[in-house]
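Crash report, auto-generated. Payload:
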Amino acid sequence: MSMNTSTRIRISALTTAMTMVLSAGAMAASTGDQTVTYTVPEMADIVISGSPGAMTITAPAAGADPAPVTDATTSWSVTSNAGTDAKKLTAALDADMATGLTLKVTVTAPDGAASSQQTLTAAGVDVVTGIDSVSETGLGIEYELTATVEAAAATSVEKTVTFTLVDAI
Amino acid sequence: MPQSHPSRPVFKRLCPALLLAAMAPAAALAADLTLLGDWSKALGTQDLSGGAGTDFPAAFESSATQATIDVTNTGGAAWTLWVRQDQAMLPPAVGLSVRRSSDGSGQGSISGGSAYLTPDFQEQILCSGVGDRSGIGLQFRLSGISISQPPGSFGATLGYRVD
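Recovered output after restart:
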């Protein structure tokens, strides 16, 4: 074999090796995706802390109406994500009060909402309006029981007040 | 017979070739990435931190191995696992984080990524290793979900890459 032939063989082999290295030069990477999702429904939830104690009307002095009796021992809590002014709180008695008796309630409103003292009846009444998305606890409830001389004497009468969080519209 | 000087002409031809060979990139990593598992969570009043009157807790976590990753076909080479966030539809205050919750199995090794990482649209290193690993655990965390945000469906896609 001539020296020229041997040289050509060596160069050819080296060129082949170099070509193999260069052709493998692109970086090979592998990829993949994952999805994370969550859903939140519209939520409007309240809880009432408990029931007030017995409210007793005391016999008045002659010529006077009985003094009102109040109870502010209960409270309510609310969570809503329904949006601005989206909800209101209503309250209704299970049956109207007897003649001469009136039960009123003042419910403390959460931030951004409004409330005022309302007379409770079986028909129901708005006690808090304009409730935004909110989460607040321990909002006060104050009851006031009044009687006139027309109220009949009674040993014990129980009433149920139902509070409901509803759409404002 | 003509005279020959085998070393000089060969050296002249070999020298550029050797330089080119030295400049060529090292053998490339052709690892494969296999992902298993996504995470989907339906929230409701039962998820409030303390019932009515309270908000959602600061964060929700998936199970420790909600998803897994296999890194294979590494040929025993070192590798890096990158992660980024794609296609996010999340309220501004909500963050999605991911962490490596287990080593998986295999003859290689793995390190990094045990603390939660909040990917953004730029790739970040989640973890790295040497050699094939299977069943590497991934855990997710959603933070900042609040009732002050409107109801709806939200989510994001995490993109992974190994090299």
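Post-recovery validation: The domain at 28-162 of chain B is CATH 2.60.40 (Immunoglobulin-like).
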